[in-house]
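Objective 1.3, modelling of assemblies. Example input:
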Amino acid sequence: MDLDINGLRVLVTAGASGIGLSIARAFAAEGAKVHVCDIDRAALATLAVSHPDITQTHCDVADRPAVQYLFNEAIAQLGGLDALINNAGIAGPTARIEHIHPDEWDRCLDICLTGQFNCTRLAVPLLRESTNASIVNLSSMAGKVGFALRAPYAAAKWGVIGFTKSLSIELGPDNIRVNAILPGLVAGDRQRRVLETKAQQRGISFNEMETTAFSFTSIKEYVTPQQVADQILFLCSRRGRTISGQAISICGDTQMLG
Ligand code: NAD
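Predicted structure (C-alpha cells):
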C-alpha cells in the first residue's frame, strides 16, 4: 500500500529509543522529514550516527521552556509541521497508593499527560497551516482498564484519552485529526522492566508474571513497536483522513492488566 507520505513533516517526542525510535524510523523510511526529541543524550548521539537524516533536539517534554526551544529547532529543520506524535511517557512508580511519593506522582503526570499539552499547544497553530494535519497521542491499555499498583500511570493514560477526544472535536473544524493509540504488552526493555517490577511486588518469578499477563489477552504474543508504527503512519497518511477522536488499541485484545 502506498501511503504517499513522502515529505510529510513529522515531530516525534521521545524518539531516540523504544517505540518512538520505531515510529521515527518508519516515517523516515517512507520519505517523511522527521525531527525527534529525547531526554537521553547518549541515545540521541547513537541516533545521529545511525540516522543522520533524522534531526533532533535534546528536550524533556515536561520542561516548557525546553519544549519551546524544541519547536523552534524542529520548525527550522522541517519548515512546518504536518504530524505531531506525542510519544513520550514513563512507567512511573509501581506501588500501593499510600507508598507513592508525591514527587513520583507529579513526575509521571508531568511527562505522560502534561507533556502532551506542552507540545500540542505549540503544534496546533502550525498544524492549521498543513493540508494533512494529525496529532497522535500515545496512551496505553492502562488508559482503558484499571491497573493496580500503577495508579499514576493509569490516571495519566486515561487522561490522554480525554485530551484526545476533546481535541478531536475542538480541532476537527480546522481539519486537524487527533487520535490515541493504546499499546498492550510491547516487546522491549521497558515491558521487561515493568513485568520484573510487578513480579517483585507480588513475590513471584518473571515467568509467572509474564504468564499471568498473557492469560488476559486473546492473542498470546507481544505487540511489536513496528506494529504500533504501522498504525500511526496510516493515521497520518491521507488514507486515514476521516479517522479522528479514536482510541485505537493494539494489544492482542487485552481484557485486563494483571
Ligand atoms: P521507553 O521507556 O522505552 O522510553 C522511550 C524514550 O523516552 C527513551 O529514549 C527515553 O529517554 C525517552 N524519555 C523518557 N522521558 C522523557 C521525557 N521527559 N522527555 C523526552 N523523552 C523522554 O518507552 P516506550 O516503551 O518506547 O514507550 C513509548 C510510549 O508508549 C510511552 O508513552 C508509553 O507509556 C507507551 N506505552 C508503552 C508500552 C510498552 O509496553 N512499552 C505499552 C503501552 C504504552
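Residues 95 and 149 are 5 Å apart (CA to CA).
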